[in-house]
Fold:
Amino acid sequence: MQHRAVELIAAKRDGHALDQAAIDFLIRGYCDGSVPDYQMAAFAMATFFQGMTADETAWLLDAMQRSGDVLNWDHLDFPTADKHSTGGVGDKISLPLAAAVAACGVGVPMISGRGLGHTGGTLDKLESIPGPGRDGKGGGFDVRLSLDDFQTMVGELRVSLIGQTPNLCPADRKMYALRDVTATVESIPLIVASIMSKKLAEGAGNLVLDVKVGSGAFMRTVEQARTLAQAMVDAGQRCGRNVTAILTAMDRPLGTHIGNALEVIESVQLLRGEGPADSRAVTCRLGGEMLRLAGVAPDLAQGEARIAQALDDGTALAKFRALVEAHGGDPRVVDAPEEILPKAPVVLALEAWTDGVVGTVDALQIGLISVRLGAGRNRKEDDIDPAVGLVFGAKPGDVVISGQPLCWVHAADERTAEVALSALRREISLLAPGQSPELLPLFIDTIY
Ligand code: URA
Structure:
């Protein structure tokens, strides 16, 4: 049947569900230019108000996924799994997780993003690792592999982390840019199709979604996060993948280190079987579920135990070393991260001004302080400073004594360090001894 975009927009505006052919027509047309921006913008706004059925969402995801290259790993003699996080502050989990899961025998072809706003991005963290580069010209950890090189590396090493390539989900690139300027980002079906189309085009058979909840997350409330998680799981499963979503807390930062090189330091701690308890628990939970979905662990508990063992016995660290070297980074970063990684010239500490218990530490505000230090971007084209950020010496709920360092500011100069220090002083409260802050549980829910 011959479709006309205007009729499909009107149908969506009036609350009707579209069929698969209609959705295919819109996405194909938008990519080849026969459906112009203004019609796609109207369609996105109609979808914003009317929503989509689960079938429509899965068809949209599928059409977007098929707009470019779709990778396939069926030729490998091991299973593949990936994870996606909806983003947060201090969320460096992809680094230890990818290495630990690969060390347990499951391939991890991970296509990641950059930080934007108060949230960090895996690619920026990896790029903070200096080294010879893949071409020997000194460019450091290189995330710009061709899809052929990416496939070869996953085949050989079971893991590789790269950035979006121009022909992976081009429909999403075009639509996201349009949604960004037409106030249509905050639509569950459009978010689901956008995130899941990129993850499904990557081809991993098993996918674990870390849906963050709280002030530092895209979804501020548990209810919003649950709705998004359920819709992503449904859409992924309708497209034939094993998908689990785990809702985790982002009302406070994850772990202790925030900032690009600083988060690599915490990742190395985790890969040595050390590091903060919350980051380790999230690594084990997400990794355990990836192993379960991939069929190499019979249940979540055994999956988590295998990930914990890989972190403790050095196999995950050895995998990370090999990964860094293959991508052109200096593998000695796993031996002496503080020496190899870029360092901020100014480090100042905020000390506890009284005895007490650390209260809530708002993830969004902490993320914004680290952006102002230069660790993040306000606009896509902004440069970041890989060395700067924050390192917490105490976390919400910890008992502290007067004079104990609560947080170190790593800054490019004295002035920005002082500004960050006074902002931090406003964000961190100390409760009377015996009190405890109200926090979300680290693991809030799991959706299968
Ligand atoms: N992240 C994405 O990749 N897409 C969205 O629509 C929202 C967040």
Observations:
- The pocket of uracil is lined by residues 176, 185, 190-191, 194-195 (CB under 6 Å).
- The mean pLDDT is 96.
- The two ends are 37 Å apart (CA to CA).
